[in-house]
What does this fold into?
Amino acid sequence: MTKSPPDADVRRAISPVICYPVETLPKPDLGLYATAFRTAEVTQTHIAAPREACAFEVARGQFFRISCTEGAQVGDLNLWNAHDLTERFYSGKTRALHGTHVSTGDRLWSSFPALRPMATIVEDSLDWYGIDPHGGSVHDVIGTRCDPYTNHLLSGGQYHHCCHSNLTRALAQARGLSRTEAEPFVHDVLNVFMCTGFTRDTGAYFMKASPVRPGDHLTFLAEIDVLGAISACPGGDCSTKHSSDLAPCHPLRIDILTPAPGALGDWQSPPCNGYDRSHGR
It folds into this structure.
């Protein structure tokens, strides 16, 4: 290790600066969303079977709710613009704007050049968890998704029910694509119900048993027409390991809820980002 300079402690003591102050971000009208949600009724239900994924569509102005039904289970969520798969959930920018974990009032942002809210969290039954003594919290936008490539790199095995593969199959089926065509559109996820953080000594990404229990749920308003897919992770509650047939796994339920006509008043779906895309030339 390199020898510390004489002013090492002074350098470490410099105060941090928030990269993206969010005071000027467009604010969702959570009161309006809550009022509309109280009028909403379930109009479709989808089930992601254990170690599998399912796709679902949500029209702008509808709600979708992801629920734990039978036992502790985490899910890996992808979102796309239902009319353009190149506009997809941007976990890195969502993390930069809202932090490593998301909850009520936070939004899932889309990729460049659109960079707009795709969905807003309106209800989180795990918002009580906060940050635990290990630095863990739930619903992370840190991790990617368990995948067969990293699994092969680390173990040499061929495992086909990693969340990446599950999402690839679900997207392929939903859009009539081959798996080869669908795979490039699968992207970094929102890890729904997953409890994660970073160790203080080495900064390693860790997971621990999710606090989710049957009846817990995470609910969103779809800000644009979205195609979603969620994988019931082969890690189950992620208390032991990823990519395994050993962990107890359970289904996840996705309900699509339609509010009463006019319940959202004059709400409008957000436009694409206003940057002129000239890039200085």
User: Anything to note?
Assistant: The longest strand covers residues 190-198. The mean pLDDT is 96. The radius of gyration is 20 Å.
